[in-house]
Protein 1
Amino acid sequence: MAGDGVTASRSRTRAGAAAGLKVERVWTTDGVHPYDEVVWERRDIVMTNWRDGSINFEQRGVEFPASWSVNAANIVTTKYFRGAVGTDEREWSLRQLIDRVVKTYRAAGERYGYFADPADAEIFEHELTWMLLHQVFSFNSPVWFNVGTPSPQQVSACFILAVDDSMDSILDWYKEEGLIFKGGSGSGVNLSRIRSSRELLSSGGTASGPVSFMRGADASAGTIKSGGATRRAAKMVILDVDHPDIEEFVVTKAREEDKIRALRDAGFDMDLGGADIVSVQYQNANNSVRVSDEFMKAVETGGEFSLRGRLDGAVIEDIDARKLFRTISQAAWECADPGLQYDDTINDWHTCPETGRITASNPCSEYLHLDNSSCNLASLNLMKFLRADGGFEVEKFVRSVELVITAMDISICFADFPTEKIGETTRAYRQLGIGYANLGALLMASGLPYDSEQGRSVAASITSLMTGTAYRRSAELAGVVGAYDGYARNAEAHQRVMRKHAAANDEIKPTSTVATAIVREATRQWTQGNKIGGKNGWRNSQASVLAPTGTIGLMMDCDTTGVEPDLALVKFKKLVGGGSMQIVNQTVPRALRSLGYPEEQVEAIVEHIADHGHVVDAPGLKTEHYPVFDCAMGERSIAPMGHVRMMAAVQPFISGAISKTVNMPEAATVEDVEKIYFEGWKLGLKALAIYRDNCKVGQPLSAAKPNKATETTAATAPTGSATSSTPRAEVEKIVEKVVEYRPVRKRLPKKRPSHTVSFSVGGAEGYLTASSYPDDGLGEVFLKMSKQGSTLAGVMDAFSVAISIGLQYGVPLETYVSKFTNMRFEPAGMTDDPDVRMAASVMDYIFRRLALDFLPYETRAELGIFTAAERAAQLRAEAEAESNGVDLTAMASSAPVETRPEPAAEAAEPAAARSAPRVGSSTELLEAVIGKAADAPLCFTCGTKMRPAGSCYVCEGCGSTSGCS
């Protein structure tokens, strides 16, 4: 179980002054090029809009390794291949993409003196190529967009701007944001230097205040798509808690939500992307309040807190701290904004305080550093380091971090920046953001609950090892190519922060042999790194962050993003042959084997999860193992404080912060939000945001539906009238008109077809008689389970009459099926029906049987109800897909994908290749399984519902994100 040790002596990374790095092989084989080690295949990529079927992208004959999933190939082809489609300049192979990036990095490394000799540069190139080819890590999206192209080579995903109290500075802010969005990145800014609306201008008038200038920036962002491609601009706006306009800032987005509700109720189209949603302001930014320890202590004690003018720092008003904290929490409860950033904690871990304070962050709150700076990101796929025996590849992880952090630093040497100020700061301080993805999958595969001391111990250990190694390599780089320019003036502070990281590492309490091995190596890394850094300084003022890893997580075929747990145990999967199917997350069987379950039990539990979407009452699964399979959503979802505790476990080992939103149930109260925000401060987090289910109106949970007002107008308007220009007064009139609908009973004819089924559930026998309309489905049900005159017989008769009348009045059978399946009471257990082998109750069996007999396949697939033959066909399709190189563990594409079909795929039974209608992503599948809508926007590009990725969202189909990484 224990991970491999790493010797303290590292001849491969000796860093003599100006001598260059010696690089040894980690993943590659001498004399064999990485491209020669994989099987390549050609595929056709055709992306369509899930909602209307229109083709929005097509490129045929692209080349990828056979091991890459359909989804990963789709995203790389559509997002990262450069050149106009249909021209000779268009990239068509993953080899071209990797070579374009890696060869640029190698050339820059040689040009700027990073390597001891050309042989080391070649090994460096091959190692990076192998790791990218095998999805061990990925650079952030701007690298793939820009490096090696004629375009400006912007490599950073995260930017922080600065705004001063002048109109010139404010207008520069608008321009700089636009340039950053154009390059495919996001930015954040703190507006606290702008004087408040309660202060005077030099002319004698009253200032507008920062909130008014937010309107112009919001409108600008709403018209610019990042990278000119698929995602809207991502931005963060921050205001200090002592700013006199803080209350106005706090409630801005909550007020806009009230506006959305009022306009929606008046008949306007307020769906995401709707015609009238543009009238809503402040929707393109995340808002955060920068709180101080002074304010939080006043909240704790119930004291007053002073709001201060921006011109002279004079107290403008003393307020009740708890009242303001309640206002912040109330607004977050209503619309998820604002989040909190804990100013004193952030600046206590700041390596460069002599240069300036940290005042802002990027849009997702993971990058926190100097104003007018940027950070380029890269993330490691943790599942690539999990051994078959449950151990962790410590040696390979350490050496992989060395390679990646070296490449990231090289990129700053040749990178372009959107403004000269940002370029100057970034080249002088060289901020990097190495991180990871697939933590949730790693913990589950290891048999560890996400919300547990054991899970947090492993997460903290890995994070400490990653950052400790990154800083040790940074110190070595300083000995080769010099420390960052701002190091000399910040040396004492930088060394103090390194000691804080090392001290936090000493506080980790390993709970397993795996964690013990990782912590032991992390301790060596911090000790060695601080020793080298004390002599050389460090090359980078920042080394690590935990980013959302949205698009690149899908590129690496990760089951989970960033620091997140798994979304759910069931996934929607696209197959190489073009079909799709529902599968159980393949981390689940690996976790069950880690927990010691034999194969027959693993199969039974996986089948139960496929049927129900959760592990509750899975046959043979011990209740103490339920927490291992807890997810972000579903029957057993992780409690909000479980997310906060995980963030607190890893925060001391991150240079920056963590992109993560703490999801809260719809029933959560404002007091619950207050508790989360307060505990975040107590536990030492740097930033925290919450999202309460269904709190936002402006982000629809499914495809936009026409409202009643529109339908009525369309139905009654004369030919040629323009219903879209109906005046508001007319719309209000239409809304007020109520049409009462009364159902009409449709009785069955005297003579009707019927059939009777005898059944046994847990030893209790009975009979089910179902009668149907000659041409229109089920209309009557009779149940008999006991002698006439008994109480049970009477209850069954009454239940049968109630169901039959409901059916005749038009209640759909699928409604009854969704309500009564999975109902649990005795008798329960084995049945004598080959299509329904286990039943949770008599009701569960009856309505499963009715569904099988009277509902079409597509409807049953949504409900997870299949015949024995259909299940067998699905299993055969999985086996055939695996044998043809399809990765069944990856997340599915939401848009249809065409490939060159292989014989085995063509032979698969139709039932296995079909997917439920109206389900185009794992989020939509989860909704169907749990019967509850998920809070997520629809993708602008392909129309599928996105899924959470950190504090952002990512589309599984096309890779578009709502964030900046």
Protein 2
Amino acid sequence: MTGRLLAAASLAALGAASGPAQADEGISWALYGTPGIIDTPVAAMPSSGTISGTFTGFSGQIRTNFSFQVEDRLSVGLRYSTFFDYYTNLDQNNLYDRSFDIAYQLVQESEYVPAVTVGLRDFLGTGILSSEYVVASKTFGTSVRASAGLGWGRLASEGGFDNPLGIFGDDFDTRPQQEIGQGGTLSYESWFRGPAAIFGGVEWAATEKLTFKAEYSSDGYDLERSRNEFGYSTPLNVGVVWFPRPGIQLAFNYLHGNELALAATVLLNVEERPLPSGFDSPPPPVRVRGADAAASWQGAVTQTELTPRLSAALAEEGLELRGVELAGDRLRVRYHNPRYRAEAQALGRVARILTREAPPQVETFELEPEYSGIAVSGVTLSRSDIEALENRVGGTDAIFQRGTLGPAGPNAGLTEVEDPSPAFTWGLGPYAGFVLFDNDEPLQVELGLQAKARYEITPSLVASGAMRLALTPYREDPKPSDSVLPHVRSDGELYANTGNPGIEYLTLAWYGRPAPAIYSRVTLGYLEPMFGGVSGELLYAPPDQRWALGAEVNYAVQREYEQLFGFRDYDIVTGHVSAYYDFDFGYHAQVDAGRYLAGDWGATFSLDREFENGWKIGGYFTFTDVSFEEFGEGSFDKGVRITVPLDYFTGTPTRQTLDANIVSLSRDGGAKLDIDGRLYETVRDGHLSDLQDGWGRFWR
């Protein structure tokens, strides 16, 4: 996990604590980190885009929970639990457990019909907390919600009876015996199996800041009662939730007649800005030509005279002019956008500037955004449409429908403009890195200094590097890997502790566009902290389509633990073919199939949801020909990734983001090279789906 996650989490907490109400009124979070009473779930769900972080603790156990409301009806969650004194005959007494949840609301609440939700707890993990449930919830007035449900697994460990699903077959009558193994596999053979039990409760919002709760819990805490001194006298729980400010919840619960449980929840809805509006500078107004525009053009403005004026005007908006072609009534402009997260906003500002600077006879604007020296698309707009639609109701949709999108034009005919920005840039600053979910030390933190440098030989040929000096180590005595596979990732602690100072990366990258919809990349050098070598990539991505196809081939050599210039005696050729597809509503799917760093063959499946304000949350998993047993703890590679746009919090335009890849642990199966600047992420901002998603900012 990268240290950027720490900053992202801190900013998210700050946004939740200082912004407007970030969670739906009347919903509070249970000890499992999902909407619920205390032990038991409810059918109510928060709005799409809600992220929650819940920390709970009681006798013998601590849970750290994260949940994300993918859609109004679909919720997923990740939990990391510590069971104290779980083992009695090993050097390591505590059990650190990772688990995943999922819930889907089958029926939404209406005037006479309750909400109904079905859910799975710990469906992907060791199964130590596994349970399934169906629950119904109904609100009465504005302050009372009653819930009742049927649970299986752990939610049937108190008051259980014969499974009513037994009418569909004898397989439902018995639940397979729980075995705490290496985790990471779907325990579908246990779902909704064995005894069932009823649970339910009531929530009463006495004031805007206080909600009282009472429930009958079918969670018998059998594991806790057998492993430590957890007191259990009754299935009844009571509690109170205090809402000190929007986005923060503090809960005080009395469990089963003997135990006090505390919980704190921080909430953030990524679709709601903490600031009421951004601090973008106002765009230049559109200049409308006079009725005799055509007659007034006498060739008085040449391309040579126009270019410096355009360059200066774009620079005022934080944009860089890269090329100009003036031909009769057509003006083609290639530019780079280092400032605006939504490419549509940059397009809109360039179009406005052209109405002010272009000769009156120019009727057609061809705008070509460029990244890493690659012209990623061509957007053609009518000047008359821009003049007519700027202040018209529905003008945003109209300008999108009337424009055309296709590949960028050729370099031939385009007069390149020298970039006035410095070719060499560098920076020095602090960094934070940390590792979570290790079985011996669940939280390891590294703090230090990082120096970065970049030299842009040409816009498409860039040398860059970074070096780190750690001031605090992850672990004084790194634990050796027990992997039976080549140690391509599981020796991460040795790299972190030995390489100090160490080179993070030192590369030369070249980007190209050999054909109108084909992009290329070659990167060589020290590619990442653990591997060096050379990487080549091709991407076929028509700008006006939602799909793309790519192929990548790498020759990778493992670096020495010192992370300087030496290499170890391990090298491998890896590669993947990739397919990408952009669905509606911001969903992006990716499949990569090929050979991984440990020599295993398989495929990685990814799905991300990107919101219009730049937040992106997704997950991935990889299956290869490495068996679950060979892979080791976790069974297969999987993780959650988050991208947080900085402009969400600052309100000022910037393309900078905070990125985090949350993995339960790093093993060797399914491992890929971590290469910066892969083509799809480089070019997609100027393609159909991303332009369409951000088109609401065209006139801003």
Protein 3
Amino acid sequence: MTETASGPARGSRAKGGKAGAKGLHIERIHTTPGVHPYDEVEWVSRDVVMTNWRDGSVNFEQRGVEFPDFWSVNAVNIVTSKYFRGAVGTPQREVSLKQLIDRIVKTYRKAGEDHKYFASSADAEIFEHELAYALLHQIFSFNSPVWFNVGTPQPQQVSACFILSVDDSMESILDWYKEEGMIFKGGSGAGLNLSRIRSSKELLSSGGNASGPVSFMRGADASAGTIKSGGATRRAAKMVVLDVDHPDIEDFIETKVKEEEKIRVLRDAGFDMDLGGDDIASVQYQNANNSVRVNDEFMKAVEDGGNFGLRARMTGEVIEEVDAKALFRKIAEAAWACADPGIQYDDTINTWHTCPESGRITASNPCSEYMHLDNTSCNLASLNLMKFLKDDGKGAQSFDVERFAKVVELVITAMDISICFADFPTQKIGENTRAFRQLGIGYANLGALLMATGHAYDSDGGRALAGAITSLMTGTAYRRSAELAAVVGPYDGYARNADAHKRVMAQHADANGKAVRMDDLDTPVWAAATEAWQDVVRLGEKNGFRNSQASVLAPTGTIGLAMSCDTTGVEPDLALVKFKKLVGGGSMQIVNGTVPQALRRLGYQEEQIEAIVAHIAENGNVIDAPGLKQEHYEVFDCAMGERAISPMGHVRMMAAIQPWISGAISKTVNMPETATVEEVEEIYYEAWKLGVKALAIYRDNCKVGQPLSAKTKDVKDAEKAEITEKAEDTIRAAVEKVVEYRPVRKRLPKGRPGITTSFTVGGAEGYMTANSYPDDGLGEVFLKMSKQGSTLAGMMDAFSIAVSVGLQYGVPLETYVSKFTNMRFEPAGMTDDPDVRMAQSIVDYIFRRLALDFLPFETRSALGIHSAEERQRHLETGSYEQSIEDDEVDVEGLAQSAPRAQELKAVAAPRAEVEAAKPAPKQAHTSAELVEMQLGIQADAPLCFSCGTKMQRAGSCYICEGCGSTSGCS
């Protein structure tokens, strides 16, 4: 663990005043003395070419970028296109991840040294190397503005989340428009509370009626839409909050409902009202998330069925009484109809407020995770939880408590340093952020971690592990904040708020002590968290705290993809089968790697695991998976699908971790289209009872604008007919299907087509005969090497029989190929096969040759196996795939293409005719689209403005898996 050097704190300021102590001693976590983290990984060159799948146009292209070999294609694409600085094609353009990480970590190190954070230059170097290692290995990520701006000549804005304020004056309202616009221009988002503005039921000093906040929302909405269309690749992210006791609250609740009705009328009249459509801009209030801020007085009136007073803004007197239950019903009806407004629980939020003497918390950022004082900002970073799961591959697992705590300390230190050199969009935000130093450490991959450890997302065990990790993270962050206060002084506002801040720390510690321990995984984490909170209370009393806030749970959209996370923020897994891009181009669908880990944790054997994974790959779910116990089904429940997690399951997870989050949680509770208004009311009510700070709901298909637009009634009718036909086929298949778990051997007939191939590997000669079923598909393999009766010949015979029997019992050839390619032993080396020039062993060669002869292009391309012709085509065109014109030429020249062509031609020709008669299959471009294809549903997420692919939800925002664009502020 890192520790603070001894020395009295003398309250130096973050502005760069004298340090009051000797600084931090930094301990190594991952790095080796004398070895740079870059020298411990293998670097490869990648080409990044990103296209819009709708029209094939190239959105971004940069070839020859340098990344570690273990980085996924998607992560490489997103980091290169989003975070590399400099104009593409110029010498100033970054071309390596090394340059990007150096640009950031060297800036942090220099600022840390300048502001006396470190005890010595050796500690500063360790800090730099550890930070570089953690970023390089995707252990954590800063929020996007850090990657965009730090170390560049442009203003070094490091915050993603902003809260503004507006008063009841025209000057303040116009300042609001300007400040919000500048934040949008920089690609970030902002939120504010409009409740100080007089209602339309109150008088102006001149005697006329005030316009009310809803009218001023129109101008801000138009401004946000214009700035977005002026060059941004995502919508302007903004949050508008109104207190439930504001006299215009009913107008605020109904703003989007009325506009949604307008959209329906215009759509039926023939206007293009789809998301991104030409005419959607004619409706109002579409560029903001709306939330009602309710207090305990109102919620208790709802419970009791009493009245509730709406108060004048200037005097505070009640000018109208309303039925609380009826008003709550209107909030639920509006959310049911169009997903707005969300809800924020004012008293709960302010009960956990560390700085009440400096003002109440009245608003949040657009995604609802950052909640603090007006005119402030928050710098975010998120840890990849799967990097801390220790798994021996046989079911024995643990969470690496010690390393997790050390990384939290490292990241919190870096985040606090960033405030020393950061720039801010307005003077007020800069002054307040430097005075209160709000940080937002959080995490991603919680859903993947829970599944991998055999915990259902909606279970007591899952919630206990999530709560323990969250408590340890925030407790460790505040402990480091107290240690930093001893070195460089507490935040400026601490003295005024010391009692309140220490009271909130005690609340966190008390909640930790009362939490229920469930199993061998969460109990050690709770123990470490308890120790951390004891240190927080002790050190805070002595030193104070460097930061007024430590943690939030953000959507982690773009950065989650950059870290190759399976799940974002606090979200569960989207589905069990994912869409994965491949290095050589193209893509494939894979079963989540967390599924086998979960099955091992649950005690299944490898043979059972393979059967269950194969079932998931084919069906997309675990229902009726061979050998899987029904009580384990819940472990594999996801956000979408036949076994989707219930809405209250999402709320219970939020409640389980909220006591140890300084801010709040970015989360939208998805509800099925069949959900009722009463169910929305129940969620909003139960979230209040459970202590959640804020949430929103989204009912499927409640929006008119659909992501996949059908312009005419005929097209829509055709789609409905297709869906009905698919449903009938599914039902018919379910009735007719006979499930047989025992494999049945399918023997080859007496006469069978075959190919005999001679080969040489490293000077060793041999022959391979591969025989097929008449209806296609490899059925047996014979291998001939060395003299009859020799050990090698005997082993080859035995190996051939084993493989052949496996093929006849239904083991897919691609399974053998994936297992045996790249196996290393002698003889190895050059071959006489132009398609496989080098082989690492005879077995490696044999299965590469079989893949080329018998597997379809997409399958073997996913395995990295290509013919000489395909490799040449890739060098010339950048793609391994044949064009349509090439396919036509190859059919004519099939006889000359290879010796095996004649034998396969009789089979290939009739199969080609059958395939030609089939309609072109629908293609998926993201995991969200793949899930839709499997489940036969349409998720009404928006299409990405950059590349046209279907986005998926991340917190209260949407994220594009293809290019990393988000619809929010993360």
Protein 4
Amino acid sequence: MIYSGKTLSVEANQDAIALLTIDLEGESVNKLASYVIKELGEAVEAIKATADLKGLVIRSGKEAFIVGADITEFHQMFEKDEAFLIDMNMTIHGIFNAIEDLPFPTVTAINGLALGGGCEITLTTDFRVMADSAKIGLPETKLGIIPGWAGCVRLPRLIGADNAIEWICGGTENRADKALAAGAVDAVLPVAELDAAALDILARANSGELDWQARRLEKTSPLKLNAIEQMMAFETAKGFVAGKAGPHYPAPVEAIKVIQKGAGESRERAQAIEAKTFARMALTDVAFNLVGLFMNDQVVKKKAKGHEKQAREIKQAAVLGAGIMGGGIAYQSASKGTPILMKDINGDAIELGLKEARKLFGKGLERGKLTTDKMAQGLSNIRPTLSYGDFGNVDLVVEAVVENPKVKAGVLAELEDNVGDDTILTSNTSTISITRLAESLKRPENFCGMHFFNPVHRMPLVEVIRGEKSSDAAIAATVAYARQMGKTPIVVNDCPGFLVNRVLFPYFGGFSLLVEKGADYQRVDKVMEKFGWPMGPAYLLDVVGMDTAVHANAVMAEGFPERMAREGKTAIQVMYDNKRLGQKNDLGFYRYEEDRKGKPKKLSDEAAQALVAEVVTETREFSDEDIIARMMVPLCMETIRCLEDNIVGSPAEADMALIYGIGFPPFRGGALRYVDAMGVAEFVALADSLAEELGPLYRPTDALRERATRGEAFYG
């Protein structure tokens, strides 16, 4: 044994080949935590000190190769200064360079996921063999940073600048066939044949058949690009990537700059450039928030898996109510492999639902994500019906009829009589109390809410709503089914609007108050889009639909009259009264025309502006900061109330629900991270100053004031 540690070991085989196996004790996957890097450095020194070795194979003892650095360490590391981060990365560069400089050929056997630092360690060796089921990539830009362990240095020299820019800026996980085509790996084969293939490559390299030294020289030398080629490769890419990433996500463009600056430099000089930029990006708020987002996502997934372990298997599902929503739910279930019945009392609605599912499958086929066979198989998983004939064998039903409590209650009672005693019933409702709907059922313990967001195939969130009598078994089965559908389920407790809509409508309330005070709604949209929302509040209302907004607002006002009930007409009500429903009929705060792709194009409309003028009570100029504060404070305050009322279980779940459900700007980390970034005491002071003029919607809770007094953030 050359080296033995808790995370990796090195032994020599009979042919004097060193086999470095990474296998973290007590972990399901390999990750490059700081203690792993320490042992890797010790192992490399032991390899260098061992005489007569003829090669090195780096391999994994787990199903994945290495999933990346240990992201749980990032926040603690990023609290250090720039000098610390540069020094840390240069130390790791030294270890990786020592692997690259070993006096014999080297190869990595990539048996599974090799991401981030896991990908970068594969780039240190002369050759790479990859399992046909594995994936490789550098996703760091998705965390607001850049590859920091020479990914920006080695990958362009290995696969060319254009390919490297695509991989790094896109943060993609690349399949084995793509990696082979790009030149990132030398062979792709079944995982069982990897070790033999790695040893074969080393034998051929030692015999002189493969020139490993020439390969190494090319990978450690400057890029062979003249000035014109550099301009073509880098300047064009910077413009394209900047447009695609947007102003709030600087990491992809910074990665291109690092590749460009290091292109003509030696390995060590290029690595120093990379280390300095990595440190600078790691200290940004964007990186802090995106890393926090990753951690929150892990919390949400862990909670969902906990429910899933307790769940019965959902082999057969059904959706009650077809049309666009029912068709979207049927498509999502069928496309992920769970057969589904789609029932309606109306044949036209059935056809509309099937048309929606066919359209979505067709798009998958056009984009190359589906084969014709898989599309046919997916469509065969949807069975339309006008009767309850086959509902006796259904494990879970999603009721998706019209958003009317009496209609839903009647349909659910009828449905319960036509399913098995153990069948789980769920309601796809955005506002109606699950506890109230359960009153019509004989087995309320088998019932809960399952709120999908529109469009179903794009929106990742599903709110699973626990009513007063919903059993743990019903919640577990619904969470499991949502995960089978490829969705992110978050369990919330019952209240008007549940979590997401309860938080969204105070945001719309802030918008209505701004308009009444004289703010131009088009300017409000532009300010909030610049802030990071995918669309401003007026535009979002047009997408949601004014009829839906008026209905939901009435539910909120009834449930929370002190802060959500309003006297007089709002701009939203005026739009609704004048039959301007938004994109549903091409008239709302804006008017809409189809563009060349058949999508609604937003246009300014003087008629809408004239109608909004009816509710304006004064004329006032607002700064961008004023607009942001008046929009964001009520949204954040309601999120805080939901946490305090135990509607949602944790800050992580609250923030992820807003990001996945309504497009809260990810780079800001969520409503509660936004409050933490401002400072809880500062947020309370801002809310108090607005509440004096604008009322209870803005007023901090007593618990929040106590939190501010204690100096306690929502995240530790």
